[in-house]
């Protein structure tokens, strides 16, 4: 199948002056995708760059049960990108797929101007369904889904974003590139969680949930609930934050501030409790609900005797 994106192809086939070549490690991939028989509606260099990024992120997956590591990169309209890795749970159906992780991380960061998803594995039918509302009528081939009716970012902008990201310190415990500063106190933490909740994607329920997760030492990431016409494909705010923390290597999280403004008795659902127990048993959970004073708990208090899948890990 050949799609047309003539204006963009014509412009971007010229190397914009001052554009740096892709990093050395990307060259082989670029060559491979140039030889592809499929003419994607995006320059081969851009796709290859994103494929290489996805391959770089895949090892960060949390996949103790399958050892199948995977990552997906969401590309945004200005060339910025948001990664997501596979995050497994002892309860297998609670898997956060790499694509769901990238999608929900971007939404929690307040971004929804998706133009492409590039995965380290072929895009499945479920993933197609998942991204369809966010990338309507996408061109999908192997591990790439691209929105064709929207102007795509310039290669130079994508490469810039990739180079900038690659230049950060990614050694364990050092990366802080996407983390917000820790709140000064509980009320500041709650204010941040409420602020996050304003990015919740809730067309089905109009029930926004927001949270921040992290530690004073490393900083915090956001989580928001993300809904889908197929309810099975959405994700709660708490699990969204866990997925983001794993992708960016935010280990040692100590605290989650969680806001659920429309329910005075709201607490993390059973699925979130299960995932929170596996991610951080003793996390301080500060719950802010519908004008009531915040309440504190921990994942193990909320889910005693949780299923830990001891015999499952490979
Ligand atoms: N929700 C959360 O985000 N966290 C929870 O722990 C409870 C439920 C979301 C999921 C869905 O978007 C909406 O709230 C209604 O279930």
The separation of the N and C termini measures 40 Å
* Overall outline: globular
CATH superfamily of the largest domain: Cytidine Deaminase, domain 2
User: What is the number of independent domains?
Assistant: 2
Q: Count of DSSP helices?
A: 10
- Along the chain, the helix and strand elements come as HHHEEHEHEEHHEEHEHEEH
CATH class of the largest domain: Alpha Beta
Summarize the main sheet: 5 strands, antiparallel
Computed structural class: alpha+beta
Helix content: 25-40%
CATH topology of the largest domain: Cytidine Deaminase, domain 2
- Write out the distinct hetero groups bound to the structure: tetrahydrodeoxyuridine
| Radius of gyration over all CA atoms, rounded | 20 Å
- Give average pLDDT, whole number: 87
What spatial order of strands do you see in the largest sheet?
A: 2-1-3-5-4
Strand content: 15-25%
For this structure, the quaternary state is single chain
Q: Do you know the CATH architecture of the largest domain? A: 3-Layer(aba) Sandwich
Low-confidence segments, ≥5 residues, pLDDT <50?
A: 1-33
Q: Overview of this structure, please?
A:
This protein is of the alpha+beta class. It has 2 domains: 24-146, Cytidine Deaminase, domain 2; 186-302, Cytidine Deaminase, domain 2. The chain is built from 10 helices and 10 strands. The chain has helices spanning 6-13, 27-34, 44-57, 98-108, 125-131, 155-166, 186-197, 237-248, 270-279, 299-302; strands at residues 71-76, 81-85, 114-119, 139-141, 144-146, 209-215, 219-224, 255-260, 284-289, 292-297. The protein has a 5-stranded antiparallel β-sheet with strand order 2-1-3-5-4. Residues 1-33 have low confidence and may be disordered. The site of tetrahydrodeoxyuridine has 13 residues, from helix 8.
